[in-house]
Amino acid sequence: MKYNKLYYLLVFLSIALVTASCVEESDLIQVDPNTYTEGSFWKTDDDALKGVNAAYGSLLTDGTYMRSTPLLLDLKGDDCRSQSPWGAMFNVGRFNSSVADAAIYGWAFETYYQGIYRANQVLENVPEIEMDEALKNRILGQAYFLRGLYFFHAVNMFKSVPLPLNNSEIYNEQKSNADGWAQVISDMQMASEMLPASYNSVSGADAGETGRATKGAALAYMGKAYLFTNDFANARDTFKKIIDSNVYSLVANYRDNFTDVNENNSESVFEVQFSRDAGGVDLGWGGAPASGWGKTSARAITYGPRGFGWTDVQPTRSLFDDFHIEKTVDDEVDPRLDATMFYNKPEGMMLYGQDFATFYGGNQGDLNDLFCRKYQNSDGGQPDEFDWRSGINERIMRYADVLLMYAESLNETGATATAYTYIQMVRDRVNLPDLATTKPGMSQQQMRDQIAHERLLEFALEGHRFDDVRRWGWLQNSSKLDWLKSRDYEYDTYKAGREYFPIPQLEMDNNPGTMQNDGY
Predict the structure, then answer these.
(1) What backbone phi and psi angles, to 5 degrees, belong to 195?
(2) How many percent of the chain have pLDDT more than 70?
(3) How far apart are the first and last CA of the chain?
(4) What domains does the chain contain, in order, with CATH numbers?
(5) pLDDT at 4 over 50
(6) Are 484 and 466 in contact (CB under 8 A)?
(7) Contact status, residue 304 vs residue 310, Cβ threshold 8 Å
(8) Which residue of 38, 149, 150, 202 has the fewest C-beta atoms within 10 A of its own C-beta?
(9) Which pLDDT tens digit goes with each residue over 363-413?
(10) Partners of 268 in the beta sheet?
(11) From the CB of residue 338, how many other CB atoms can be counted at a distance below 10 Å?
Protein backbone atom coordinates (compact mmCIF):
# COMPACT_ATOMS: atom_id res chain seq x y z
CA MET A 1 0.00 0.00 0.00
CA LYS A 2 2.74 2.37 0.94
CA TYR A 3 4.47 1.57 -2.34
CA ASN A 4 1.32 2.24 -4.38
CA LYS A 5 0.74 5.56 -2.68
CA LEU A 6 4.32 6.63 -3.29
CA TYR A 7 4.10 5.54 -6.93
CA TYR A 8 0.97 7.56 -7.60
CA LEU A 9 2.43 10.59 -5.83
CA LEU A 10 5.56 10.49 -8.01
CA VAL A 11 3.50 10.13 -11.18
CA PHE A 12 1.32 13.09 -10.17
CA LEU A 13 4.33 15.30 -9.44
CA SER A 14 5.96 14.34 -12.74
CA ILE A 15 2.87 15.22 -14.71
CA ALA A 16 2.53 18.52 -12.85
CA LEU A 17 6.17 19.38 -13.55
CA VAL A 18 5.87 18.59 -17.26
CA THR A 19 2.61 20.53 -17.54
CA ALA A 20 4.02 23.59 -15.77
CA SER A 21 7.09 23.61 -18.01
CA CYS A 22 4.88 23.81 -21.11
CA VAL A 23 2.80 26.80 -20.00
CA GLU A 24 3.58 30.03 -21.84
CA GLU A 25 3.01 33.43 -20.25
CA SER A 26 0.49 34.20 -22.98
CA ASP A 27 -1.50 31.13 -21.90
CA LEU A 28 -2.07 32.73 -18.52
CA ILE A 29 -3.56 35.94 -19.99
CA GLN A 30 -7.28 35.55 -20.15
CA VAL A 31 -9.38 38.18 -21.95
CA ASP A 32 -12.55 39.21 -20.18
CA PRO A 33 -15.29 38.42 -22.72
CA ASN A 34 -17.31 41.35 -21.37
CA THR A 35 -14.54 43.86 -22.12
CA TYR A 36 -13.55 45.29 -25.51
CA THR A 37 -9.95 45.03 -26.69
CA GLU A 38 -8.33 46.72 -29.68
CA GLY A 39 -8.41 43.40 -31.48
CA SER A 40 -12.12 42.86 -30.93
CA PHE A 41 -13.40 46.43 -31.09
CA TRP A 42 -12.61 48.20 -34.36
CA LYS A 43 -14.90 46.12 -36.58
CA THR A 44 -18.08 48.06 -37.45
CA ASP A 45 -19.38 51.52 -38.22
CA ASP A 46 -20.88 51.56 -34.71
CA ASP A 47 -17.40 50.94 -33.29
CA ALA A 48 -16.05 53.82 -35.37
CA LEU A 49 -18.72 56.19 -34.03
CA LYS A 50 -18.09 55.08 -30.46
CA GLY A 51 -14.39 55.64 -30.98
CA VAL A 52 -14.77 59.22 -32.16
CA ASN A 53 -17.36 59.87 -29.44
CA ALA A 54 -14.70 58.86 -26.90
CA ALA A 55 -12.41 61.51 -28.40
CA TYR A 56 -15.16 64.10 -27.83
CA GLY A 57 -15.43 62.79 -24.27
CA SER A 58 -12.05 64.27 -23.39
CA LEU A 59 -13.63 67.72 -23.77
CA LEU A 60 -15.96 67.04 -20.84
CA THR A 61 -13.67 66.20 -17.93
CA ASP A 62 -11.99 68.36 -15.32
CA GLY A 63 -8.80 68.93 -17.30
CA THR A 64 -10.69 70.47 -20.18
CA TYR A 65 -14.03 72.26 -20.30
CA MET A 66 -15.63 70.90 -17.17
CA ARG A 67 -13.45 73.37 -15.27
CA SER A 68 -9.67 73.61 -15.78
CA THR A 69 -9.36 74.89 -19.35
CA PRO A 70 -11.70 77.90 -18.91
CA LEU A 71 -9.75 78.82 -15.76
CA LEU A 72 -6.38 78.60 -17.50
CA LEU A 73 -7.63 80.66 -20.45
CA ASP A 74 -9.38 83.33 -18.37
CA LEU A 75 -7.31 84.02 -15.29
CA LYS A 76 -4.28 85.60 -16.98
CA GLY A 77 -6.43 88.18 -18.74
CA ASP A 78 -7.01 91.71 -17.48
CA ASP A 79 -10.76 91.10 -17.69
CA CYS A 80 -10.84 88.90 -14.58
CA ARG A 81 -9.11 88.24 -11.27
CA SER A 82 -9.03 85.57 -8.59
CA GLN A 83 -9.09 85.59 -4.81
CA SER A 84 -9.46 81.83 -4.63
CA PRO A 85 -8.20 80.22 -1.40
CA TRP A 86 -6.73 77.46 -3.57
CA GLY A 87 -3.15 78.39 -4.37
CA ALA A 88 -3.01 76.53 -7.68
CA MET A 89 -5.93 78.61 -8.94
CA PHE A 90 -5.00 81.87 -7.20
CA ASN A 91 -1.54 81.84 -8.79
CA VAL A 92 -2.62 81.29 -12.41
CA GLY A 93 -3.52 84.94 -12.94
CA ARG A 94 -0.38 86.03 -11.09
CA PHE A 95 1.83 84.10 -13.53
CA ASN A 96 3.09 82.03 -10.63
CA SER A 97 2.05 78.46 -11.37
CA SER A 98 4.42 76.10 -9.59
CA VAL A 99 6.46 73.40 -11.26
CA ALA A 100 6.14 71.50 -7.98
CA ASP A 101 2.33 71.56 -8.09
CA ALA A 102 0.76 70.61 -11.41
CA ALA A 103 -2.83 71.02 -10.19
CA ILE A 104 -5.10 72.48 -12.87
CA TYR A 105 -2.52 73.12 -15.62
CA GLY A 106 -1.12 69.59 -15.33
CA TRP A 107 -4.61 68.10 -15.47
CA ALA A 108 -5.24 70.07 -18.65
CA PHE A 109 -1.98 68.89 -20.23
CA GLU A 110 -2.80 65.27 -19.37
CA THR A 111 -6.33 65.49 -20.74
CA TYR A 112 -5.28 67.12 -24.01
CA TYR A 113 -2.99 64.16 -24.65
CA GLN A 114 -5.71 61.72 -23.63
CA GLY A 115 -7.86 63.33 -26.33
CA ILE A 116 -4.99 63.18 -28.84
CA TYR A 117 -4.48 59.48 -28.06
CA ARG A 118 -8.17 58.75 -28.61
CA ALA A 119 -8.24 60.71 -31.87
CA ASN A 120 -5.16 58.81 -33.06
CA GLN A 121 -6.92 55.51 -32.33
CA VAL A 122 -9.70 56.58 -34.69
CA LEU A 123 -7.29 57.71 -37.39
CA GLU A 124 -5.32 54.45 -37.16
CA ASN A 125 -8.19 51.96 -37.02
CA VAL A 126 -11.22 53.38 -38.83
CA PRO A 127 -9.65 53.36 -42.34
CA GLU A 128 -9.53 49.53 -42.14
CA ILE A 129 -13.23 49.13 -41.27
CA GLU A 130 -15.58 48.17 -44.09
CA MET A 131 -18.36 50.75 -43.86
CA ASP A 132 -20.12 53.54 -45.73
CA GLU A 133 -17.37 55.75 -47.16
CA ALA A 134 -19.19 59.02 -46.55
CA LEU A 135 -19.73 58.17 -42.88
CA LYS A 136 -16.12 57.00 -42.61
CA ASN A 137 -14.87 60.32 -43.98
CA ARG A 138 -17.01 62.26 -41.52
CA ILE A 139 -15.68 60.22 -38.61
CA LEU A 140 -12.07 60.66 -39.74
CA GLY A 141 -12.70 64.38 -40.28
CA GLN A 142 -13.96 64.69 -36.72
CA ALA A 143 -10.88 62.86 -35.43
CA TYR A 144 -8.59 65.26 -37.31
CA PHE A 145 -10.57 68.20 -35.93
CA LEU A 146 -10.43 66.97 -32.35
CA ARG A 147 -6.74 66.14 -32.52
CA GLY A 148 -6.13 69.59 -33.98
CA LEU A 149 -8.19 71.19 -31.21
CA TYR A 150 -6.28 69.39 -28.45
CA PHE A 151 -3.00 70.28 -30.15
CA PHE A 152 -4.24 73.89 -30.39
CA HIS A 153 -4.69 74.09 -26.63
CA ALA A 154 -1.41 72.31 -25.86
CA VAL A 155 0.64 74.51 -28.22
CA ASN A 156 -1.16 77.68 -27.18
CA MET A 157 -0.71 77.13 -23.43
CA PHE A 158 2.53 75.15 -23.18
CA LYS A 159 4.48 76.46 -26.20
CA SER A 160 6.78 73.55 -27.15
CA VAL A 161 5.14 70.15 -26.81
CA PRO A 162 5.22 66.63 -28.28
CA LEU A 163 3.10 66.07 -31.38
CA PRO A 164 2.26 62.34 -31.47
CA LEU A 165 0.59 61.43 -34.76
CA ASN A 166 0.20 57.76 -33.87
CA ASN A 167 0.09 55.65 -30.72
CA SER A 168 2.93 53.28 -31.59
CA GLU A 169 5.71 55.30 -29.93
CA ILE A 170 6.20 55.37 -26.16
CA TYR A 171 8.26 58.54 -26.29
CA ASN A 172 7.54 61.55 -28.48
CA GLU A 173 10.12 64.29 -28.70
CA GLN A 174 9.26 67.85 -27.83
CA LYS A 175 8.66 69.99 -30.91
CA SER A 176 9.00 73.70 -31.47
CA ASN A 177 6.08 76.08 -31.12
CA ALA A 178 6.20 76.69 -34.88
CA ASP A 179 6.00 72.94 -35.52
CA GLY A 180 3.01 72.77 -33.20
CA TRP A 181 1.07 75.47 -35.01
CA ALA A 182 1.91 73.86 -38.36
CA GLN A 183 0.40 70.59 -37.12
CA VAL A 184 -2.75 72.35 -35.90
CA ILE A 185 -3.17 73.90 -39.35
CA SER A 186 -2.53 70.57 -41.06
CA ASP A 187 -5.12 68.73 -38.95
CA MET A 188 -7.72 71.45 -39.42
CA GLN A 189 -7.06 71.51 -43.16
CA MET A 190 -7.70 67.76 -43.33
CA ALA A 191 -10.82 68.12 -41.22
CA SER A 192 -12.20 70.94 -43.36
CA GLU A 193 -11.93 68.76 -46.47
CA MET A 194 -13.74 65.80 -44.89
CA LEU A 195 -16.47 67.38 -42.77
CA PRO A 196 -19.94 68.55 -43.84
CA ALA A 197 -21.30 72.05 -43.33
CA SER A 198 -23.92 70.48 -41.03
CA TYR A 199 -25.33 67.05 -40.22
CA ASN A 200 -28.85 67.93 -41.30
CA SER A 201 -28.21 66.97 -44.91
CA VAL A 202 -26.29 63.73 -44.39
CA SER A 203 -27.55 60.16 -44.19
CA GLY A 204 -26.22 57.59 -41.79
CA ALA A 205 -25.93 56.97 -38.07
CA ASP A 206 -24.89 60.57 -37.40
CA ALA A 207 -27.65 62.24 -39.42
CA GLY A 208 -29.14 65.29 -37.73
CA GLU A 209 -26.81 65.19 -34.74
CA THR A 210 -25.85 68.60 -33.39
CA GLY A 211 -22.60 69.27 -31.59
CA ARG A 212 -20.36 67.36 -33.99
CA ALA A 213 -17.49 69.18 -35.66
CA THR A 214 -18.27 70.77 -39.03
CA LYS A 215 -16.37 72.24 -41.95
CA GLY A 216 -16.97 75.71 -40.52
CA ALA A 217 -15.48 74.75 -37.17
CA ALA A 218 -12.36 73.32 -38.80
CA LEU A 219 -11.91 76.42 -40.98
CA ALA A 220 -12.41 78.70 -37.97
CA TYR A 221 -9.65 77.04 -35.97
CA MET A 222 -7.39 76.86 -39.01
CA GLY A 223 -7.89 80.59 -39.53
CA LYS A 224 -7.27 81.23 -35.85
CA ALA A 225 -4.00 79.29 -36.01
CA TYR A 226 -2.93 81.37 -39.01
CA LEU A 227 -3.85 84.54 -37.10
CA PHE A 228 -1.91 83.44 -34.02
CA THR A 229 1.18 82.91 -36.19
CA ASN A 230 0.79 86.27 -37.97
CA ASP A 231 -0.02 84.67 -41.32
CA PHE A 232 -2.68 87.30 -41.94
CA ALA A 233 -3.24 86.65 -45.63
CA ASN A 234 -4.09 82.98 -45.08
CA ALA A 235 -6.17 83.88 -42.02
CA ARG A 236 -8.13 86.40 -44.08
CA ASP A 237 -8.81 83.95 -46.88
CA THR A 238 -9.83 81.18 -44.48
CA PHE A 239 -12.27 83.33 -42.51
CA LYS A 240 -13.75 84.61 -45.77
CA LYS A 241 -14.72 81.04 -46.70
CA ILE A 242 -16.76 80.77 -43.51
CA ILE A 243 -18.50 84.09 -44.09
CA ASP A 244 -19.24 83.27 -47.73
CA SER A 245 -20.74 79.90 -46.76
CA ASN A 246 -23.79 81.74 -45.34
CA VAL A 247 -24.16 79.03 -42.70
CA TYR A 248 -23.77 81.29 -39.67
CA SER A 249 -25.34 84.47 -38.33
CA LEU A 250 -25.35 86.38 -35.05
CA VAL A 251 -28.26 85.66 -32.70
CA ALA A 252 -30.37 88.69 -31.80
CA ASN A 253 -29.95 88.28 -28.04
CA TYR A 254 -26.28 88.38 -27.00
CA ARG A 255 -27.03 86.55 -23.73
CA ASP A 256 -28.36 83.51 -25.61
CA ASN A 257 -24.73 82.53 -26.12
CA PHE A 258 -24.20 81.79 -22.41
CA THR A 259 -27.30 80.02 -21.10
CA ASP A 260 -28.90 76.62 -21.62
CA VAL A 261 -31.52 78.32 -23.81
CA ASN A 262 -30.95 78.40 -27.59
CA GLU A 263 -27.86 76.20 -27.54
CA ASN A 264 -26.25 75.18 -30.85
CA ASN A 265 -27.75 78.29 -32.39
CA SER A 266 -26.90 80.07 -35.64
CA GLU A 267 -23.91 81.81 -34.03
CA SER A 268 -22.38 78.62 -32.68
CA VAL A 269 -19.46 77.44 -34.79
CA PHE A 270 -18.40 74.89 -32.19
CA GLU A 271 -19.52 74.30 -28.63
CA VAL A 272 -18.80 71.65 -26.01
CA GLN A 273 -21.99 69.79 -25.16
CA PHE A 274 -23.05 69.58 -21.50
CA SER A 275 -26.39 68.35 -20.16
CA ARG A 276 -28.01 67.77 -16.77
CA ASP A 277 -30.14 65.03 -18.33
CA ALA A 278 -27.38 62.82 -19.76
CA GLY A 279 -25.47 60.16 -17.85
CA GLY A 280 -25.18 59.90 -14.09
CA VAL A 281 -24.78 62.54 -11.43
CA ASP A 282 -21.03 62.25 -10.73
CA LEU A 283 -18.58 64.76 -12.15
CA GLY A 284 -15.84 63.53 -14.48
CA TRP A 285 -12.77 64.48 -12.48
CA GLY A 286 -10.47 62.45 -14.72
CA GLY A 287 -8.92 59.03 -15.08
CA ALA A 288 -10.77 56.02 -16.45
CA PRO A 289 -14.40 56.86 -17.29
CA ALA A 290 -16.97 55.57 -14.81
CA SER A 291 -20.57 54.61 -15.48
CA GLY A 292 -21.81 57.16 -12.95
CA TRP A 293 -20.24 60.15 -14.71
CA GLY A 294 -22.64 62.78 -15.91
CA LYS A 295 -22.19 65.26 -18.73
CA THR A 296 -22.24 68.41 -16.61
CA SER A 297 -19.82 71.23 -15.94
CA ALA A 298 -18.33 72.70 -12.75
CA ARG A 299 -17.68 76.05 -14.41
CA ALA A 300 -20.80 77.69 -12.97
CA ILE A 301 -20.01 76.91 -9.34
CA THR A 302 -16.35 77.88 -9.81
CA TYR A 303 -17.22 81.30 -11.27
CA GLY A 304 -20.46 81.69 -9.28
CA PRO A 305 -21.35 84.87 -7.33
CA ARG A 306 -20.70 84.83 -3.58
CA GLY A 307 -23.46 82.97 -1.81
CA PHE A 308 -24.38 81.10 -4.99
CA GLY A 309 -21.00 79.61 -5.95
CA TRP A 310 -17.32 79.63 -4.96
CA THR A 311 -16.46 83.02 -6.55
CA ASP A 312 -13.01 81.81 -7.61
CA VAL A 313 -13.15 84.11 -10.67
CA GLN A 314 -14.45 87.69 -10.75
CA PRO A 315 -14.48 90.49 -13.35
CA THR A 316 -12.05 93.38 -12.94
CA ARG A 317 -13.20 96.92 -12.24
CA SER A 318 -11.37 98.04 -15.39
CA LEU A 319 -13.60 95.75 -17.47
CA PHE A 320 -16.68 97.24 -15.79
CA ASP A 321 -15.42 100.74 -16.65
CA ASP A 322 -14.69 99.78 -20.27
CA PHE A 323 -18.34 98.95 -20.83
CA HIS A 324 -19.16 102.57 -19.99
CA ILE A 325 -16.79 104.15 -22.51
CA GLU A 326 -19.36 104.24 -25.30
CA LYS A 327 -23.14 104.51 -25.10
CA THR A 328 -25.63 102.91 -27.45
CA VAL A 329 -27.51 104.93 -30.05
CA ASP A 330 -30.30 105.19 -27.43
CA ASP A 331 -27.87 106.63 -24.87
CA GLU A 332 -27.88 103.41 -22.84
CA VAL A 333 -25.02 101.44 -21.33
CA ASP A 334 -23.68 98.65 -23.55
CA PRO A 335 -26.11 95.75 -22.88
CA ARG A 336 -23.22 93.27 -22.86
CA LEU A 337 -22.33 94.59 -19.41
CA ASP A 338 -25.44 93.08 -17.82
CA ALA A 339 -24.91 89.82 -19.72
CA THR A 340 -21.30 89.61 -18.51
CA MET A 341 -21.43 90.46 -14.82
CA PHE A 342 -23.61 91.01 -11.77
CA TYR A 343 -23.24 94.34 -9.97
CA ASN A 344 -25.26 96.76 -7.86
CA LYS A 345 -27.19 98.26 -10.74
CA PRO A 346 -29.14 101.40 -9.75
CA GLU A 347 -32.25 100.11 -11.54
CA GLY A 348 -31.95 96.75 -9.79
CA MET A 349 -30.61 93.39 -10.90
CA MET A 350 -31.88 89.88 -10.18
CA LEU A 351 -29.77 86.76 -9.70
CA TYR A 352 -31.04 83.29 -8.81
CA GLY A 353 -34.42 84.81 -7.95
CA GLN A 354 -32.86 87.32 -5.53
CA ASP A 355 -32.47 91.09 -5.79
CA PHE A 356 -28.76 91.94 -5.84
CA ALA A 357 -29.01 94.98 -3.55
CA THR A 358 -31.19 93.15 -1.04
CA PHE A 359 -29.17 89.92 -0.97
CA TYR A 360 -25.83 91.69 -0.52
CA GLY A 361 -27.18 94.65 1.46
CA GLY A 362 -25.70 93.45 4.74
CA ASN A 363 -22.14 93.43 3.43
CA GLN A 364 -20.74 96.58 1.83
CA GLY A 365 -17.83 94.68 0.30
CA ASP A 366 -20.14 92.31 -1.57
CA LEU A 367 -22.62 95.06 -2.38
CA ASN A 368 -19.91 97.00 -4.22
CA ASP A 369 -18.25 93.95 -5.75
CA LEU A 370 -18.49 92.45 -9.24
CA PHE A 371 -19.44 88.85 -10.02
CA CYS A 372 -19.49 86.72 -13.16
CA ARG A 373 -22.78 86.22 -14.99
CA LYS A 374 -21.77 84.44 -18.19
CA TYR A 375 -22.42 80.70 -18.02
CA GLN A 376 -24.38 80.99 -14.76
CA ASN A 377 -27.74 79.26 -14.19
CA SER A 378 -28.97 82.49 -12.66
CA ASP A 379 -32.25 83.23 -14.42
CA GLY A 380 -34.43 81.62 -11.76
CA GLY A 381 -34.32 77.94 -12.67
CA GLN A 382 -31.87 77.07 -9.88
CA PRO A 383 -31.43 78.57 -6.39
CA ASP A 384 -27.63 78.37 -6.61
CA GLU A 385 -24.78 76.35 -8.17
CA PHE A 386 -23.87 74.19 -5.19
CA ASP A 387 -24.94 70.93 -6.80
CA TRP A 388 -21.87 71.34 -9.08
CA ARG A 389 -23.94 70.29 -12.11
CA SER A 390 -24.30 72.93 -14.81
CA GLY A 391 -25.71 71.83 -18.16
CA ILE A 392 -24.78 74.99 -20.08
CA ASN A 393 -22.81 74.28 -23.27
CA GLU A 394 -19.44 76.02 -23.58
CA ARG A 395 -19.38 78.05 -26.81
CA ILE A 396 -15.71 77.93 -27.65
CA MET A 397 -16.01 79.31 -31.19
CA ARG A 398 -18.67 81.88 -32.02
CA TYR A 399 -19.38 83.52 -35.36
CA ALA A 400 -18.77 86.90 -33.73
CA ASP A 401 -15.17 85.77 -33.22
CA VAL A 402 -14.89 84.82 -36.89
CA LEU A 403 -16.13 88.29 -37.89
CA LEU A 404 -13.71 90.14 -35.62
CA MET A 405 -10.76 87.91 -36.53
CA TYR A 406 -11.58 88.53 -40.19
CA ALA A 407 -11.66 92.27 -39.53
CA GLU A 408 -8.28 92.01 -37.85
CA SER A 409 -6.76 90.07 -40.74
CA LEU A 410 -8.16 92.65 -43.17
CA ASN A 411 -6.56 95.45 -41.19
CA GLU A 412 -3.22 93.64 -41.06
CA THR A 413 -3.24 93.10 -44.83
CA GLY A 414 -3.88 96.76 -45.59
CA ALA A 415 -7.67 96.73 -45.99
CA THR A 416 -8.39 98.87 -42.93
CA ALA A 417 -11.38 100.59 -44.53
CA THR A 418 -13.03 97.24 -45.26
CA ALA A 419 -12.58 96.07 -41.67
CA TYR A 420 -15.22 98.58 -40.50
CA THR A 421 -18.01 96.53 -42.10
CA TYR A 422 -17.34 93.35 -40.11
CA ILE A 423 -16.73 95.13 -36.83
CA GLN A 424 -20.02 96.94 -37.22
CA MET A 425 -21.89 93.67 -37.69
CA VAL A 426 -20.94 92.79 -34.11
CA ARG A 427 -21.64 96.30 -32.81
CA ASP A 428 -25.06 96.47 -34.46
CA ARG A 429 -26.37 93.61 -32.35
CA VAL A 430 -25.88 95.66 -29.19
CA ASN A 431 -27.04 98.91 -30.78
CA LEU A 432 -23.69 100.72 -30.77
CA PRO A 433 -23.28 103.63 -33.20
CA ASP A 434 -21.75 103.27 -36.65
CA LEU A 435 -17.99 103.20 -36.14
CA ALA A 436 -17.40 104.58 -39.63
CA THR A 437 -19.25 107.70 -38.50
CA THR A 438 -17.86 108.05 -34.98
CA LYS A 439 -14.27 107.14 -35.89
CA PRO A 440 -13.82 107.52 -39.65
CA GLY A 441 -10.52 107.03 -41.44
CA MET A 442 -8.63 105.23 -38.70
CA SER A 443 -5.01 104.35 -39.35
CA GLN A 444 -3.90 100.73 -39.17
CA GLN A 445 -2.61 101.21 -35.61
CA GLN A 446 -5.77 103.00 -34.52
CA MET A 447 -7.79 100.15 -35.94
CA ARG A 448 -5.63 97.64 -34.04
CA ASP A 449 -6.45 99.44 -30.82
CA GLN A 450 -10.13 99.58 -31.72
CA ILE A 451 -10.27 95.86 -32.50
CA ALA A 452 -8.59 95.15 -29.16
CA HIS A 453 -11.34 97.13 -27.43
CA GLU A 454 -14.11 95.44 -29.43
CA ARG A 455 -12.75 91.98 -28.65
CA LEU A 456 -12.43 92.75 -24.94
CA LEU A 457 -16.09 93.71 -24.59
CA GLU A 458 -17.50 91.03 -26.89
CA PHE A 459 -15.53 88.10 -25.42
CA ALA A 460 -14.95 89.05 -21.77
CA LEU A 461 -14.73 85.97 -19.50
CA GLU A 462 -14.75 83.65 -22.54
CA GLY A 463 -11.07 82.71 -22.51
CA HIS A 464 -9.92 84.97 -25.36
CA ARG A 465 -8.42 88.06 -23.72
CA PHE A 466 -5.04 86.72 -22.60
CA ASP A 467 -4.53 84.87 -25.86
CA ASP A 468 -4.93 88.24 -27.55
CA VAL A 469 -2.62 90.03 -25.10
CA ARG A 470 0.12 87.45 -25.66
CA ARG A 471 -0.12 87.21 -29.44
CA TRP A 472 -0.16 91.00 -29.85
CA GLY A 473 3.18 91.21 -28.02
CA TRP A 474 1.86 93.47 -25.27
CA LEU A 475 3.87 91.69 -22.58
CA GLN A 476 7.10 92.62 -24.37
CA ASN A 477 5.95 96.24 -24.83
CA SER A 478 6.80 98.19 -21.66
CA SER A 479 4.08 100.81 -22.13
CA LYS A 480 1.43 98.18 -22.81
CA LEU A 481 2.59 96.10 -19.84
CA ASP A 482 2.40 99.16 -17.58
CA TRP A 483 -1.13 99.79 -18.87
CA LEU A 484 -2.10 96.18 -18.08
CA LYS A 485 -0.68 96.59 -14.57
CA SER A 486 -2.81 99.68 -14.08
CA ARG A 487 -5.89 97.67 -15.01
CA ASP A 488 -5.13 94.42 -13.16
CA TYR A 489 -2.67 94.27 -10.25
CA GLU A 490 -2.03 90.60 -10.99
CA TYR A 491 0.26 91.73 -13.82
CA ASP A 492 2.66 93.15 -11.22
CA THR A 493 4.08 89.66 -10.79
CA TYR A 494 4.47 88.83 -14.48
CA LYS A 495 7.90 87.50 -15.42
CA ALA A 496 9.20 86.96 -18.95
CA GLY A 497 8.40 83.48 -20.21
CA ARG A 498 5.47 82.97 -17.87
CA GLU A 499 2.96 83.83 -20.53
CA TYR A 500 3.11 80.04 -20.99
CA PHE A 501 2.50 77.43 -18.34
CA PRO A 502 5.32 75.15 -17.20
CA ILE A 503 5.70 71.73 -18.74
CA PRO A 504 4.35 69.40 -16.01
CA GLN A 505 7.08 67.66 -14.04
CA LEU A 506 5.55 64.26 -14.79
CA GLU A 507 6.07 64.90 -18.51
CA MET A 508 9.65 66.02 -17.81
CA ASP A 509 10.30 62.81 -15.88
CA ASN A 510 8.63 60.41 -18.31
CA ASN A 511 9.67 61.86 -21.66
CA PRO A 512 13.49 62.01 -21.87
CA GLY A 513 14.97 65.16 -23.35
CA THR A 514 12.00 67.41 -22.57
CA MET A 515 13.09 70.98 -21.83
CA GLN A 516 11.27 73.23 -19.39
CA ASN A 517 9.77 76.51 -20.63
CA ASP A 518 11.71 79.73 -20.03
CA GLY A 519 10.92 81.49 -16.77
CA TYR A 520 10.58 78.29 -14.74
Answers:
(1) -95, 150
(2) 93
(3) 80
(4) 40-247 (1.25.40.390)
(5) no
(6) no
(7) yes
(8) 38
(9) 999 999 999 999 999 997 899 999 999 999 999 999 999 999 999 999 999
(10) 398
(11) 17
